[in-house]
């Protein structure tokens, strides 16, 4: 879990979180490909040029402007599907934004778990900076520049042609009852 205070209205934070019309620097410059964010909707997070798909998922909770949750799977990993929850709460100084990762991986050092542990801090800090200042943090912009340089070595398994939206509904969310 990672939490940050964003000095803005809850509608400003929510609008940026669910934006689908351009790449989002706090989501590693991923851009939603979805017929619309709502309960049950499939989505892909694609690179700005659309060539690669980094994440596939399905919306499992959508309560504007307070809660949004979705299944999550990296296209370059065989790890089980995880769940990511975003919780927004109005406070005196703005909005308390909380990101919660729920992993199915039995292995506590799975590739997905390690990437999400690092990614949660990046997402929260860069969403905060974007909403408050109009741009990502300096470190975030540097990281995005480095990612753009590494685009030619992105695994072929992440090519968007392998990840049409109709693959997302087949991703079943993690359930603790499945482990019992």
Beta-strand content estimate: 25-35%
Structural class: alpha+beta
Q: Shape from CA axes? A: globular
Order of helices and strands: EHEEEEEEHHH
Descriptive notes:
By secondary structure, the protein is an alpha+beta fold. It has four helices and seven strands. It has helices spanning 10-17, 111-133, 138-150, 176-179; strands at 2-6, 31-33, 42-46, 53-63, 67-74, 82-91, 94-102. α1 (10-17) packs across α2. The protein is globular and about 45 Å long.
Q: What brief labels describe this structure?
A:
180 residues; seven-stranded antiparallel sheet; 4 helices; disordered C terminus; globular; alpha+beta
Summarize the structure in short.
By secondary structure, this protein is of the alpha+beta class.
Draw up the topology in text:
Elements: E1 2-6, H1 10-17, E2 31-33, E3 42-46, E4 53-63, E5 67-74, E6 82-91, E7 94-102, H2 111-133, H3 138-150, H4 176-179
Antiparallel strand pairs: 1-7, 2-3, 3-4, 4-5, 5-6, 6-7
Helix pairs in contact: 1-2
